[in-house]
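Researcher: Please predict.
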Amino acid sequence: MSNTASLRPQPVASEHTPLKARKVSFDWADTPLHWIPGDPSSTHTINVLHLLLPAGERWFVHVYKQALPYVRDPRLRADVIGFIGQEAMHSQAHDDVLPHLRELGLDPTPYTAQVDWLFEKLLGDRTLPPGRAREWWLKERVAMIAAIEHYTAFLGDWVLNARALDARGADPTMLDLLRWHGAEEVEHRSVAFDLFLHLDGDYRRRARTWATAFTALVFLWQRGTRFFMANDPTLTDGKAAVRDFLRGGRQGVLPTPGAMLRSIPQYLSRRYHPSRYGSTEQALAYLERSPAATAAATSTATTNTASGGA
């Protein structure tokens, strides 16, 4: 693939860190359906992550494995491999929440089947001849992932700083899942954009795929929230309402519309680079104290010690 971009936004070097997958696990036995107490609307707005991310991040991994042969920079190649490992774990961790939701009486299968179709069929591989057509479709999907990762990093930075969730007594296991995942999104926030720049970097493609990704995310998120509210067995007339979303933002248990709107010109700026938004130091600090991440590190160290002594 040729790199045709004439403008290269400059990353903040100090924000780069080597990436590794952390093999976390979570025990959902004590997590209630409304894990933000007394707030099913905000709970289900965030729960949409469990519907979108398993299929979405499997798709990321699939596309990036196709892109790897075109990566000529050794450090970027290592970053992409680390990104693939982390995203695979994210997909598994959120997928593991779904059986617990079923046990609580909320079966997500009708919605996840639609999401699977979107990523596996609509955005999946196409029967295209080798050469330009196949490379074009790969570049389109790489650019779309860069746009989506802008928002996963935005959400990761938000949840790391959302102290209102702690004040409201949100379930600690769910908070750890969200913050472990969010911290890794902040940690690897530059990889998708750097891969896009490496393979293509065309600004028109960046803007076009951002519009597609943003529109799809808004549509899928509101649709997912409506699905959860309508199928929540504890609600007699569950409906998703804009006023509840706005209230969650004011209370700090959801991102505010203003913050989300401000993220748009950030990404569309020609000087944009993800390393300028969020803090790797903060992300790594959380990963050092995350119950799931520290348990995974201890388990890995024990396994390595046992293997070395065998």
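Model: Residues 132-160 form the longest helix (29 residues).
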